[in-house]
Amino acid sequence: MQNTNNSLFQRIDTKLLFVYLLLVLIGMSAVFSVEYRTTDVSVFLMHKSHMKQAIWLGVSLFVGMLILFTESKFFASFAYLGYALGLTLLVLTIFIGKDVKGSHSWLGIGSFAFQPGEVCKIFTALALAKFLSSPETNFNTWKYRMIGIGLALFPAILIILQKETGLALVYFSFFLVMYREGLPISILVIGLSLIVLTITTLLLSSLAMFIVLTLLAAIVAYLSWRDIKRNVTARGLLIGIWAVCILFSQFIVPITFKKVLQGYQIDRIYSMLGQEVPDKYRKDTEDGHSSKKGNASDYNVTQSKIAIGSGGFWGKGFLNGTQTKNDFVPEQHTDFIFCAIGEQFGFVGSLGLIGLYIFLMLRIIVIGERQRSAFSRIYAYGVAAILFFHFAINISMTIGLAPVIGITLPFLSYGGSSLLSFSVLIFILMRLDADRQVLIR
Amino acid sequence: MSYVASSRPFVVRIIFIATAILILLRLFYIQVIEDKYKLLANDIAIYRKIVFPPRGVIYDRKGHVMLYNQVVYDLVVTPNDIKKEFDTTTFCNALRISKDQFCTILKKIRIKNGPMRQGIFFEQLTPAQTARYQENMYQFNGFELVERSIRTYPDSVGGALLGYIGEVSPAMLKKDRYSSYHQGDYLGMTGLEQFYEEELRGQRGVYFIERDKFNRPTGPYKNGELDTPAVGGKSLQLYLDAALQKYGEQLMANKLGSVVAIDPSTGGILAMISSPTYDPNLLRGSNRARNFTKLQSDATLPMFNRAIKASYNPGSTMKPLTALVALDMGVITPSFGYPCSGGYFACGRKIGCTHEGAGHAANLRLALANSCNAYFCHLYRLSVDARKWGDVKVGLHKWYEYMSSFGLGHATGIDIPYEGSGTLFDTKDYNAMYNGSWNSCTNVFLGMGQGEVALTPLQLANAMCIVANHGFYYTPHFVKAIGNKQRVDKLKPYLEKHQVTHISDSTFSTVAYGMMDVVDKGTGMIARIPGLEICAKTGTVENKALVNGVAMKMKNHSMFVAFAPRVHPKIAIAVIVENAGFGATWAGPIASLMIEQYLKDTIASNRKGIEANMFNAKLISSYTYLIDSARRKKDRAIWDKKQALKNGLLKERSTFKTLLETSKKTGLH
Description:
The complex is a heterodimer of chains A (441) and B (669).
Chain A: H1 8-11, H2 14-35, H3 49-68, H4 73-96, E1 98-100, E2 103-109, E3 112-114, H5 116-133, H6 142-161, H7 165-170, H8 174-180, H9 185-203, H10 206-223, H11 225-230, H12 232-260, H13 263-273, H14 296-309, H15 322-325, H16 338-369, H17 374-398, H18 416-434
Chain B: H1 8-33, H2 36-45, E1 46-51, E2 58-59, E3 65-77, H3 88-95, H4 99-113, E4 119-125, H5 127-135, E5 143-152, H6 159-162, E6 165-167, H7 170-173, E7 186-188, H8 191-195, H9 197-201, E8 205-211, E9 217-220, E10 236-238, H10 242-251, E11 257-263, E12 268-275, H11 288-296, H12 306-309, H13 319-329, E13 343-344, E14 351-352, H14 364-370, H15 373-384, H16 392-405, E15 423-424, H17 427-434, E16 453-454, H18 457-468, E17 472-474, E18 479-482, E19 497-499, H19 505-520, E20 535-547, E21 550-564, E22 571-577, H20 587-600, H21 608-616, H22 623-647, H23 650-665
Parallel strand pairs in B: 2-10
Antiparallel strand pairs in B: 1-8, 2-3, 3-4, 3-5, 6-7, 8-9, 10-18, 11-12, 11-22, 13-14, 15-16, 17-19, 20-21, 21-22
Helix pairs in contact in B: 3-5, 10-20, 13-15, 13-19, 14-19
């Protein structure tokens, strides 16, 4: 170990720590502002969410201290074990989990409940880092690439089984890590193409889709007629792509929507597209009402947009948010906490907050790139990717750019489980970074 | 280590930054460019609460409340804000209305105001309705309880003078004058409520209140920066004596007619009764329309303020005025006498006089006391035919000018609307009437208050003030002070003294003594009150009414004018009881009881009998209803004809024409 002369605390990245604390404090004030009533006698009311969040910050800092005092090698050696533990918890949740708001993803220990899916992000990030950094792994081969993808997505499958699709989608952010580590761009291109294909399938009728795809294929064939004529592979490729697209749009998407997705998820996807759910995808919910336009998530987004939009350029001022203060936005202290910022501090405040996030994520990339050991670097990318996914999707869903999937805004959203797991992610990174000169395997 | 393209860390960064820019662009759009969300936010979270100011209270001369505000709740609705999940059953149960009613009212509002604007769903909820509604208020999106006060008349008196308020009509709202009113506002429709609308109205307040998703108010928006508080209307203090008013209404019960009592020294009206009267409380609140129609269609015309609108030949009550004009013109002196022997024959016909004894008109005082017709006919002729005028046509115009300055023939300018002007003919009117050929004999009856002269009871009482004041009057008015201030612009016209004669005090005394004799030993002895010098004049006025197009002589109007005490008079009064008989029989006792009540506050025990008689007398003759129905029949016929002409076929029109022609030809027309 090449210990420097500096103590541990002098080696940790203060910028990272500072931005982390700043975001948590912003979150606490935002939670405070939406629950504030003019009749409140004091700021320090223990039953209020912001005070609970303060306690969670204390817990997080305590855990953070424990992490900082842990040997950095521990995380690498513990990675697979942790991953296994995480998977065990996920499997366990499927059987003994608690139902909270329609999902089956909570595990209770006494009065304390947490989402293993949330915690498992940490283990997966560590495991992926361990796997990709191990000398045996050759990421140029499809075998290892598939193992990597499987490693990242296996927890997601378990989480989908818990009906918590939003959280499962977070695991797709690890593609960014694998991209950094050499995953061919073609996989990402194919992934993106599938998303585009899915959306167009939802917007167009199946016949129109068939015609459009065939026409596209014909145009490509016409433009590259020479290649098609001579080259058998090109011909095969074109026909193959066309066939896969047809298969995907005519069968896979409808079957997924009919059999796999839940009614509310379909609602949310269509709501984001600004469309009404077509009859063929309508599902009767448990209480007999069929899903329809004007559903809950539509309402959430509308109210959220009103709150953010009414903030204007400068915002209404702290504690002057009429929409958030008066409970118009559901889930406004958890998933929709961004509304409080948007309304009270306007575009300027939003810009500041987003700037802070971007700074944080870019800082993590910088930290990642300065690591001597690949493990630390890949882990750093994992942290950045998870934060990025949460940040982008959460804010996008409050302004109607993404479907409402229940994921939190890192550090800001009220909720102990979320704050603690993000804190642990950051503190492990901080610990690894303190030993950036050390080769960790 | 695996192969890593050196550009990839940068691509990752670019993805981060690009996503952030995308989000910021979207934020910029919804926060800065798009206004929709701000409007929606205000719509949803900020509620504009209108606070109606309390309307001014009206007090009588003693500070007794005559008209004040009682708090009630109206339920208003914005039809489009009613959500699909609206629980109609609970709502209807709370108000105890049927679902059909609910739908009908809502439909009406929708048509009247459009679906986006607030309309009144239910006026004046009962306390029970309010309580039941408030229990479930949070469920009723689109509905709001609006507090407002309604006018209450604690004594149920003075409807004609206090007036009532009503909702501003759509037609009124189109006019500039009512530009400061909003649909649903109330304003004074008549009486003092209308005349002093600006003072009584106050200024409505607007409060911006934040509300939460359950429609519950959570606090002021922007700490109330934008709020304007409601400013209450100013109070009015009247000269009116509520007790006297009430007493007068009781005396006049079941009679047609009116009483006007004025304080001569100020022109302040002490009582104004138009009988039959009505309970002003009927004309407020949700039953207003129904009661209004009922009152309107009553044959006795309770809504018709006789005290200021009806006009009557003054009869003998005119005589003091005739005397004043003659004295001021200098054509007679108080000692002037006329040898009346039971009639006036100078115009070639007999004008009867109730007295025959010699010397009953030996001087002005005696003539007044005995109400000698011949004396005053002569006085009139002396006035208009006086040599200094040269011609009767000039003389009559002078006489007209005198009478006009006494307040006859035009509205006095009292502070309630719709005052009538009475009748007073000028020279040109007689010229038109008689084609220019007439003389003082033609209208000699004017001297005794018959013919082309008619006064409203108010004018009559005002004329009495002139006699009482020895030659001046103040425009009769109700309001002494607005919001405790007497010297305000609105009241200025009523502080102006109108000097109308220049007769010496001693001359005036003669007229006053003559009128005192009327009570002491003349025609109005019934009005005598021991210890009070009452000056009065009786009047028994012949009148005709049109029944089925024929002028029929009706029972005489009973009239009485008086002022008291003789020195420093405190009250001048005119009483008219329609078709009741002699002036001394009905109007006299009523006037004297009013005077006694006002000056002594109690009625002497020996006069209780008279009082009871007056209370109990029912003097509305049955033919009032007949005349009414006849008039209605006629009106109906005319209206039917017009409608037939308007809407009917051409054929009908031609038949009507031919009918007219044939009737002309045959001379039946």
